[in-house]
Every structure is written in structure tokens, then in C-alpha cells.
């Protein structure tokens, strides 16, 4: 590094040197700091003229030379001359004094002290002319250099320096004054561009910028960029142009390892540790170089003293055992579904409150729309008596006032006493205001309001549009023939022959009577001498004339052989007597299998006299059979006896004289039975349910839930897909087996228990009889289209039977071909109802 000349001004040097030396060209001053004093202006006064010692140079030791080179290397980034703002106010002079005091002791700055030492060196050099500047560094020994440095640093500064003249010209402004663009009416100073490489005096300060986290563009119009901890300005470092930056990056190998400090606006060299952290982050490694990713495994449960003795451990669960929460999944899917349906709107803008609103009321805000919302009732408007200046007739007299005060609060006509005032400003505060507001809020809270929606529906529109009964003729309308029994004994059962000529009835006197359907004449009777006749039923086979009657413990097969054609009589005798020739003439319950503890079912041939009267076969059965039902072919018939336990249901085959029990254990007490019209299915009705069995497959097909408390009667539609069930709790249930196991329609029109229901074999009619003495006739059309529901239309109510001892009509049966109905009642009559 080449030595630089020192330019100085000192009043002390002017006094000591009488003869001024020629002034050489000015050169940059060398001092310990990086500040460079600006060249002082030329003054007219003689005391301010300084001596220039440009002929001599200061020699530096090797250490000082090295320090100088380091400082020169940093001048490109930090050097900037100390400039003055050009203001001549007293505040600037005070700032100059403060900076001079901060620079050195007793008001001296470092440049003045260095000039004083340099002047002393020049004096010594003048006294010893033998030493030349060119040989001063080479001739001095190490001891001489050390002594010289000690003497240089042990000289006390002259206190007169800085008191008699201007020491430094650093604060003298050289810039151009222009209006400020930030402060209106103020001015700022613009300076000429300085060549990069000159350092700023503040660049060597260790204290950082203390302005804090503020926008640094606030200092764009100022020469400094902030203040240090002592309050001194930190001047802006000089920055070169792009060419200087490029050359610095090319020449300086460490330029790529520096970054810009925006607070100090200079380049900061990164340390090796910081560079290592950056390299590790680029390679996606741990920033800590001491981190060992391959450290030894910590033995939690192995090794000496760490053996596992319990099945449970406190070790963290591995991720392979993680099972996603199904509950959280359901919650998330529920929210997603709500978002898709629009019930939840993500990022929904919040409702903005009005800037001005009523504090105690929300009347200015629209109420949330709701179907049942009803606004609170408004208070009535004030009356004339509540005016502050009411007419005289409203003001209380003394007697009225006294009466009002003595009366109870509940008995008063008004809650206030009318008063008269000259002006509104004379009206005092209403003392019951808070109490009335409280009661008003209490009424609104304790008396919630609701809106009752009343449907304006015409009742006639609720009634289904049904066809007129006249359009659905024929159906029974009136009683035509009456079949009277002697003694008005109860007629429990009735049946019509397949040909439609004869009517058989069974009464409680134990006699089965045969009537001519047309004229109502009794043509024959059988006295069974077994108690009341429970049920009678003709065989559906029209080629035979077979009638089955039930009495206590016995089933009797009858036939009016002398009243039917000879061919029919022969076919009847052949069918009933065929079983006596076979080995199964006498069978036991269970189709020939021995069953212990069960009474045998016996088929027997009656005596000669009984056969002549038409009693063909008798069957002894356990219990008292209550109902008989024929199969459509006329060979099988079934009986049911409620008191026969597991053998209550029996199926008999007339051609073979065989009897079998289809159930090992009956599901409850069987009340009614019926064969399916087309399929090998069997209906068995208990007290509450109707079960359908497949006799061929010996399986339960379905169970119909009637909803009744006690089933009294049952019949199957000729189509086989619909069933009608009557009950003692006055209900009739229509079941469509294609729709389900519950009633399609439940009809409640009888006032007493239902006793019998029956479908017409060929016409769309069915009837129901009850203990109230009435018979209801219905039109029932069952469509072949499965998508169309059955049509049920009430047609006629037949009245004629008397109610005797709480019993009315006991059974009804339809004529096989015609729309005629035969009914039997407790009044001892059988009636024929015709159209």
C-alpha cells in the first residue's frame, strides 16, 4: 500500500512556523478510522491558514501497513465522506459541538490529536536533516521504532487546539439546496456523486442501526440511514454502479458469500457456520451438523435391566397400528353432504351490522323468515285520559280519587290517575314505567305465540269419489222368505246346496233342518241328539249331495237321498261307502300312526234306521268341533275344535275314511280355518293372527297381522289373493296378500261384535253380520292389474233380525249363482234376502 500525504490545519502549527511552506497538491489523509475530513475552505484570515507538509510522508510499520490494506479493502463498501447539511442555525452548531465532544477528550476529535502528533514528527525531522523520508523506514531499528511509537502516544495533547479557530470543515455544506418532496415548505441538500471506494467515518462503528423495523425509504432524502446507540447519525455508505458491482464480484473471490444488510445498506460477509447451514438446507439435511441420523437404537425393552415383565408398555404406538376413526369419517361426510346440498355455505360472508341502530330494539332489522313466526302484539295507542292535558271530565274528583286510592290494584279500572298539566315540561316521570315494562316482557316470555294453520278444505273433497249403488246392481235389498224354527230357538249356522235348491240350518235344539229355498217349506230334518248343532256345510261338488253337520264330539255326514236325482244319490252313496271297504276304516289321529295320550278318531257306519233317514257316516273326534270347511274338490274337509289342544285342527278324507292332524303343536287357539281356492294352502286363524301354511311343502308361507283382539270369522276371496277377517272388537280387516301382512283396509262400521263374513262365489259382493242385528252389503271388485287397488263400496244395510239376549245375526251365506243372501239369527229365523 502506498503512503498517503497528510493534509492538516492547525493554529498551533501556524504560530510555530514563521515562514510558510509551499503548499503541494492535496492528498487523502491517513488516520486510524475510515472517516475522511473534507477539504477546508480557504479563509482570508491568516490565523486559519494551515501549513502543508507535502514534501514529507509518514512511514508505517509492517503491522500498520497490513491494517491499512484491510481498511482499503473495505472502503468500497463502507466509505462515505462526512458531510454537513449546510444549515447555519444554532442547532447545527450545537450538534457540531456534541460530535466534537464525542470524538475525543476535552472537546478534541481524533483528527486534531493525529495532526498534533504529525506536527511533532515534522519538527523532529527538521531538527535532524540527516534523516530523509526515503530512508527513514529502512534506517530505523526495531528499538527506535518502538521508542518513537511510545513517545508518540505519550505526548499530552495541547489544550489550546480547537479553541482559537475552526478545527474541522466536515460540517461545511457543499451540496445543492432543493425543495423537499416530503415536507412542504422545507428544503433538502443534494450532493454530488462520489467515487466508490471512499469509506464513511461511521462505517467502523460497531453499534448497529437502532431505527427499528421501519421502512428505510423514509431516509431516502437524508444523507444518513439511522442512528447508533449513542444517538449519532449513521451515514449512508456509497454504492457503486452495476459495473462496479460486477468487477467486485469478479475480482473478489468471497463476493458470492456476502449478503446485503438492508438496515445498514451494506454487504455482510457470511461466516463458515452460516454457509454450512445454508448448504445443509439446500440438501434437505438437518441444519445442525452435530445431529446424527444413524445413532444407536435406544433399547427400551432389551438389555440388562430392561427386560419386559408386564404385557403393557409405555412405548409410543407405531404408525402401522393407526386405525382411522369411523366416527370422524362420518362427521366429515355429513359436513361434505351438507355443503353439497347447500345447507352449509363455506366462507359465507357475515352479516354486516348497521353503523347506526337502536340499542333497545331490533325493529329496524328484518326478522328471520319462519313459517311459524308471529310478531308480538302491539300495545294499544294512548287514550284521551292518558294525555298530559285531558279534558275536565277525565280528571278525577276528590271522591273518585279517594275511591281509586282505597281500591285494590286488581279492582281499579285504570292503572293510573289522570292528571292535568299546563305544559309538557311540567309532567313528572312515570313511576310505574319500569314495572309495566317488566310485566310486558314477562307476558311475552311466559305466553309464547304460535300460529295455527287452518286448512280451508271442503269436507266433500275428502270423501273418495265412489260409484253410485244403482250402478252396482244387483245386490240384496229386502227380505223375501223367512224360515221360522219352532220355539224361536237360536239358529247358529246355515248353508246353501251347490245347486241352490236347498237350505240347511242347524239350531241349538240339535236338529238339522232342510228347507226349500223358493217357498220356505221345511222338507226334512235330522235329530242328531248330540246337543246344539255348531256348523253345517254342503260339499262344493255339485255331482253329489253331501252335508256335514257338527255336534259335540261328533262329525255327521248327511244326505237327502230321496230329494235328489237318482244319479246324484248313487254318486253320493258310492263316495261315502267306499271307505268302509278299505283297511283304513278306523284310523287314529296322525294318519294311522300311534300317538300316545291322544284319543282315537273313529269312523263308524250308523244303524240301518239312521241310514234310511240319510245319516251316512259318523266320525268321533276329540272336543267340540265349531266349524267345518270343505276343499274345492269335495273329498277333503277340515274341522276345528278349540278345546281339543294340539288336535284341534283335523283334516278328513271322505273317500278313504282317513283323518290326519296337520300340526304337532298348534300356535295358539285356532278359531277359524279355510282352504285356499286354488293352491294347496291352508288358512288357520288364531285369536290375533292368521297363518297361511303350505300343506304340500309343510311350511309356513306367511303370517297376517290383523290388529284385532279376537278373531271371530274369516273368508277367502274366490281369486285367492284377498282375505276378509272379522273380530269381536267390531273391526273388519281386508287383506291384500300382494301388498303385505297388514290390513289394506280396516272398516269400523258395526256397533257390536262381528259374527260372520262371506264372499260371493261368483259376483263382486261380500257381506258382514253383527250382533247389532244388521247385515252390511259391500261391492268388492278385485282387479287383475296388480297396480290397481281393490274397489270397496258400501251398498246396503239389511235390517230384519231381532237382537235376542245380546245376540243378533249369527251367520250369512251367499247363493252359489244369484245375488241372494241367506242369514240366520238368534231370534230363531232364517231369512232370504233378494234383489
UniProtKB/TrEMBL annotation:
Acidic residues: bias regions: 60-82, 89-104, 119-128
Protein family per UniProt: Belongs to the WD repeat BOP1/ERB1 family.
Repeat positions for WD: 491-525, 747-778, 809-835
Domain BOP1 N-terminal positions: 219-476
Name listed for the protein in its UniProt record: Ribosome biogenesis protein ERB1
Functional note: Component of the NOP7 complex, which is required for maturation of the 25S and 5.8S ribosomal RNAs and formation of the 60S ribosome.
Organism whose genome encodes this protein: Dioszegia hungarica
Main location, first listed in the record: nucleus
Pfam family, any one: WD40
Biased composition range(s): Basic and acidic residues: 136-147
Subcellular location: Nucleus, Nucleolus; Nucleus, Nucleoplasm
Segments for region (Disordered): 1-175
GO biological process: maturation of 5.8S rRNA from tricistronic rRNA transcript (SSU-rRNA, 5.8S rRNA, LSU-rRNA); maturation of LSU-rRNA from tricistronic rRNA transcript (SSU-rRNA, 5.8S rRNA, LSU-rRNA)
Alphabetical list of PROSITE patterns matching this protein: WD_REPEATS_1 (PS00678), WD_REPEATS_2 (PS50082), WD_REPEATS_REGION (PS50294)
A molecular-function term among this protein's GO annotations: ribonucleoprotein complex binding
Record keywords, A-Z: Nucleus, Repeat, Ribosome biogenesis, rRNA processing, WD repeat
Residues passing through the membrane, by range: none
GO cellular component: nucleoplasm; PeBoW complex; preribosome, large subunit precursor
Keyword Repeat tagged: yes
Oligomer status and interactors: Component of the NOP7 complex, composed of ERB1, NOP7 and YTM1. Within the NOP7 complex ERB1 appears to interact directly with NOP7 and YTM1. The NOP7 complex also associates with the 66S pre-ribosome.
Amino acid at each position: 500500500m502506498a503512503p498517503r500525504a497528510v493534509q492538516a490545519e492547525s493554529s498551533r502549527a501556524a504560530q510555530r512556523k514563521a515562514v510558510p511552506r509551499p503548499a503541494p497538491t492535496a492528498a487523502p489523509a491517513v488516520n486510524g478510522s475510515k472517516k475522511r475530513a473534507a477539504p477546508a475552505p480557504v479563509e482570508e484570515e491568516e490565523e486559519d491558514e494551515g501549513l502543508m507538509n507535502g514534501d514529507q510522508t509518514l512511514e508505517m510499520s509492517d503491522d500498520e501497513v497490513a491494517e491499512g490494506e484491510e481498511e482499503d479493502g473495505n472502503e468500497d463498501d463502507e466509505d462515505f465522506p462526512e458531510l454537513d447539511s449546510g444549515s447555519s442555525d444554532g442547532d447545527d452548531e450545537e450538534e457540531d459541538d456534541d460530535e466534537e465532544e464525542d470524538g475525543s477528550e476535552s472537546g478534541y476529535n481524533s483528527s486534531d490529536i493525529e495532526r498534533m502528533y504529525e506536527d511533532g514528527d515534522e519538527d523532529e525531522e527538521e531538527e535532524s536533516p540527516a534523516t530523509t523520508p526515503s530512508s527513514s523506514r529502512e534506517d530505523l531499528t526495531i528499538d527506535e521504532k518502538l521508542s518513537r511509537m511510545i513517545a508518540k502516544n505519550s505526548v499530552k495533547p495541547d489544550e489550546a487546539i480547537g479553541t482559537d479557530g475552526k478545527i474541522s470543515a466536515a460540517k461545511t455544506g457543499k451540496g445543492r439546496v432543493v425543495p423537499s418532496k416530503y415536507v412542504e415548505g422545507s428544503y433538502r441538500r443534494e450532493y454530488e456523486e462520489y467515487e466508490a471506494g471512499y469509506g464513511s467515518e461511521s462505517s467502523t462503528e460497531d453499534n448497529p442501526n437502532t431505527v427499528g423495523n421501519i421502512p428505510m425509504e423514509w431516509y431516502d432524502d437524508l444523507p444518513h440511514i439511522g442512528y447508533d446507540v449513542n444517538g449519532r447519525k449513521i451515514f449512508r455508505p456509497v454504492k457503486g454502479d452495476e459495473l462496479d458491482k460486477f468487477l467486485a464480484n469478479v475480482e473478489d473471490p468471497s463476493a458470492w458469500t456476502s449478503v446485503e444488510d438492508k438496515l445498514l445498506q451494506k454487504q455482510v460477509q457470511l461466516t463458515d457456520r452460516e454457509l454450512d447451514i445454508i448448504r445443509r438446507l439446500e440438501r434437505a439435511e438437518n441444519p445442525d451438523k452435530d445431529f446424527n441420523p444413524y445413532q444407536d437404537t435406544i433399547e427400551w425393552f432389551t438389555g440388562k435391566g430392561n427386560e419386559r415383565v408386564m404385557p403393557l408398555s409405555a412405548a409410543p404406538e407405531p404408525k402401522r397400528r393407526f386405525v382411522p376413526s369411523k366416527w370422524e369419517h362420518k362427521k366429515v361426510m355429513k359436513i361434505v353432504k351438507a355443503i353439497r346440498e347447500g345447507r352449509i355455505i363455506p366462507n359465507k360472508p357475515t352479516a354486516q351490522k348497521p353503523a347506526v341502530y337502536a340499542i333497545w330494539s331490533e325493529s329496524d332489522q328484518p326478522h328471520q323468515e319462519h313459517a311459524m313466526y308471529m310478531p308480538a302484539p302491539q300495545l294499544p295507542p294512548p287514550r284521551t285520559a292518558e294525555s298530559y292535558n285531558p279534558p275536565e271530565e277525565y280528571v278525577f274528583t276528590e271522591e273518585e280519587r279517594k275511591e281509586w286510592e282505597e281500591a285494590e290494584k286488581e279492582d281499579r279500572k285504570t292503572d293510573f290517575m289522570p292528571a292535568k298539566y299546563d305544559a309538557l315540561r311540567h309532567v313528572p316521570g312515570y313511576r310505574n314505567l319500569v314495572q309495566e315494562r317488566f310485566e310486558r316482557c314477562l307476558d311475552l316470555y311466559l305466553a309464547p305465540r304460535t300460529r295455527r294453520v287452518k286448512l280451508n278444505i271442503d269436507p266433500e273433497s275428502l270423501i273418495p269419489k265412489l260409484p253410485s249403488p244403482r250402478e252396482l246392481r244387483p245386490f240384496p235389498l229386502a227380505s223375501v222368505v223367512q224360515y221360522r224354527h219352532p220355539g224361536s230357538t237360536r239358529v247358529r249356522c246355515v248353508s246353501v246346496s251347490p245347486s241352490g235348491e236347498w237350505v240347511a240350518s242347524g239350531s241349538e235344539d240339535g236338529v238339522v233342518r232342510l228347507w226349500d229355498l223358493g217357498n220356505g217349506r221345511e222338507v226334512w230334518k235330522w235329530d242328531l241328539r248330540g246337543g246344539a248343532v255348531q256348523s253345517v256345510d254342503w260339499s262344493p261338488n255339485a255331482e253329489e249331495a253331501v252335508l256335514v253337520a257338527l255336534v259335540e264330539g261328533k262329525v255327521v255326514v248327511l244326505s237327502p237321498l230321496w230329494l235328489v236325482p237318482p244319479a246324484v244319490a248313487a254318486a253320493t252313496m258310492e263316495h261315502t261307502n267306499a271307505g268302509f271297504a278299505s283297511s283304513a276304516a278306523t284310523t287314529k289321529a296322525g294318519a294311522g300312526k300311534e300317538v300316545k295320550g291322544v284319543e282315537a278318531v273313529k269312523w263308524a257306519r250308523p244303524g240301518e234306521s239312521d241310514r234310511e233317514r240319510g245319516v251316512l257316516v259318523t266320525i268321533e273326534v276329540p272336543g267340540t268341533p265349531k266349524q267345518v270347511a270343505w276343499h274345492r274338490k269335495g273329498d277333503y274337509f277340515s274341522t276345528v275344535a278349540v278345546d281339543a289342544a294340539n288336535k284341534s285342527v283335523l283334516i278328513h278324507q271322505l273317500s278313504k275314511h282317513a283323518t290326519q292332524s296337520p300340526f304337532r303343536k298348534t300356535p295358539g287357539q285356532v278359531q277359524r280355518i279355510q282352504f285356499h281356492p286354488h293352491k294347496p294352502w291352508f288358512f288357520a286363524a288364531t285369536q290375533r293372527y292368521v297363518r297361511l301354511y303350505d300343506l304340500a311343502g309343510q311350511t309356513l308361507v306367511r303370517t297376517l297381522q290383523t290388529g284385532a283382539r279376537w278373531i271371530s270369522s274369516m273368508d277367502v276371496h274366490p281369486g285367492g289373493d284377498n282375505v276378509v277377517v272379522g273380530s269381536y272388537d267390531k273391526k273388519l280387516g281386508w287383506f291384500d296378500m300382494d301388498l303385505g301382512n297388514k290390513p289394506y283396509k280396516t272398516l269400523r262400521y258395526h256397533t257390536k261384535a262381528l259374527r260372520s263374513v262371506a264372499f260371493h262365489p261368483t259376483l263382486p259382493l261380500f257381506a258382514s253380520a253383527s250382533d247389532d242385528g244388521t247385515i252390511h252389503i259391500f261391492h268388492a271388485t278385485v282387479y287383475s292389474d296388480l297396480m290397481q287397488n281393490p274397489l270397496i263400496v258400501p251398498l246396503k244395510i239389511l235390517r230384519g233380525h231381532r237382537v235376542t239376549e245380546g245376540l243378533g245375526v249369527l251367520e250369512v251365506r251367499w247363493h252359489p249363482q244369484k245375488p241372494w243372501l241367506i242369514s240366520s239369527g238368534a231370534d230363531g229365523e232364517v231369512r232370504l234376502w233378494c234383489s
